[in-house]
Amino acid sequence: MKDLVILAADKDLQHAMKGVLARPEALGIRAVEADIFVEPQHDPACARNGVEFISNFSRQYDHGLLMFDHRGSGMETISPMALQNKLNQKLAHSAWGERAKAIVLAPELEVWIWNDSPHIDEVAGWKNRNPSLRPWLIDNGWLQKGEVKPARPKEAFDQALRAARKPRSASLYEQIAKKVSLRRCKDASFLELKRLLSQWFRPEGQTLLE
User: Fold this and answer.
1) pLDDT 10s digits, 12-38
2) Cα distance between residue 100 and residue 55, in whole Å
3) Are 18 and 66 members of one domain?
4) Per residue in 165-190, is it b (16+ CB within 10 Å) or e — as a string?
5) Is the pLDDT assigned to residue 210 strictly greater than 60?
6) Residues 186, 192, 195, CA angle at the centre, nearest 5°?
7) 207 in a domain, yes or no?
8) Where are the alpha helices (DSSP H) in 112-200?
9) Which terminus, N or C, of the chain has the lesser number of Cβ atoms within 10 Å?
10) Which residues are registered as beta bridge partners of 5?
């Protein structure tokens, strides 16, 4: 059996997870053998049918993750945590039992991107630009003074790329995930991801009590 299967809502999330999993030492886990599938119908299909899809792999992988954005899922009337709990209950009653979990990103993947790392400016095409990225975000109404993350993280990222004339690509998410400090992201969904990975894939020789 392989270690992990992930159903991701789009290629952006797929590449972000490739970048994250490429850094086991930064996560405090052992190297993980993972396959990441992309749902062609994106977030709504993940929310509706993701549990059924990923359940097909319960005998081929030790663990599974169902990951998608809350915004655009068609389930916005339910809070992200309530939706995540609902999906986790379905997974617990599936062939996976407790070996698979859902992670609902609120509002969306790009909330993971925004921190004070200089690598974001570099990947987004803002290195050595004047003004720098964060002042530009504030001046253009995408970021409030004193805040780290824009209220509309995806739109802010897209506008920043457009202003820098940087072509949008899913590979940008992998580049960011491979470069930024994983300790900087305090988003609840990312902390849950780290918790699950450390629970499932402890370094060789490390016990649960350690």
Assistant:
1) 999 999 999 999 999 999 999 999 999
2) 9
3) yes
4) eeeeeeebbbbbbbebebeebebebb
5) no
6) 105
7) no
8) 118-123, 133-139, 153-163, 171-179, 188-200
9) C
10) 35, 64
